[in-house]
Amino acid sequence: MLGPLLEARPRRIVVANRTLEKARSLVAGHATLAAANEVALEAAALDAIDGNFDVVINATASSLAGHQVPCSPAVLKPGALACDLMYGPAAQGFLDWAREHGAVGRDGLGMLVEQAAEAFVFWRGVRPPSAQVLAELRAELAR
């Protein structure tokens, strides 16, 4: 997931993890790509993230386990995009947290649909109507 983010060339990406060493390892593994794209790539512990951000992506298991969001709301700039990789009821706590702190929350259902669409193109040579599929899935989940 980090590769495409680096290729989008944001000014800065901070990788945070409960275990600082794991965050550092991920950063080290992507240092060359970060440098090639002129992206400042940093590691931090979840409880020591420095700054606030335009985009925050929750890739932790906190939503799946029903735990609280593992970082401070100070990471969110007003109007930030806050994405949880979970979807459905599991993501609701994170989405509520984002909204309560002035961010726009999004779940991971769109990402799941687009990944499936890419696989379908690869195997079948045809792109499915992913917007329609996403709308139908959201309607089904709302039932």
Give an overview in words.
The strands form 2 sheets. Strands 3-4-5 form a 3-stranded parallel sheet, with helices on one face. Helix 6 (about 110-125) crosses helix 7 (about 130-140). The chain folds into 2 domains: about 1-110, Rossmann fold (3-Layer(aba) Sandwich); about 110-143, no CATH class. It is built from 7 helices and 5 strands; from the N terminus they run H-E-H-H-E-E-H-E-H-E-H-H. It has helices at about 1-5, 20-30, 30-35, 60-65, 90-100, 110-125, 130-140; strands at about 10-15, 40-45, 55-60, 75-85, 105. With about 140 residues, the protein is α/β, with parallel strands linked by helices. The model has no long low-confidence stretch (mean pLDDT about 95). The longest helix is centred in the C-terminal third of the chain and has 16 residues, at about 110-125.
Q: Mind sketching the topology for me?
A:
Blueprint: H1 2-7, E1 12-17, H2 20-29, H3 31-36, E2 40-45, E3 53-58, H4 62-65, E4 76-84, H5 92-100, E5 104-106, H6 109-124, H7 130-142
Parallel strand pairs: 1-2, 3-4, 4-5
Strand arrangement in the largest pleated sheet? 3-4-5
Low-confidence stretches: none
Distance between the termini: 31 Å
Helix share, percent: 40-55%
Provide the residue-averaged pLDDT.
Answer: 93
Tell me the name of the CATH homologous superfamily of the largest domain: NAD(P)-binding Rossmann-like Domain
Shape: globular
The CATH class of the largest domain is identified as Alpha Beta
The radius of gyration is 16 Å
Number of strands: 5
Instruction: Supply the number of helical segments.
Output: 7
Q: Hey, roughly how much beta strand do the residues contain?
A: 15-25%
The string of secondary-structure elements, in order, is HEHHEEHEHEHH
> How is the biggest beta sheet arranged?
3 strands, parallel
Architecture of the largest domain, CATH level 2? 3-Layer(aba) Sandwich
> Helix/strand-derived class?
alpha/beta
Number of domains: 2
**CATH topology group of the largest domain:** Rossmann fold
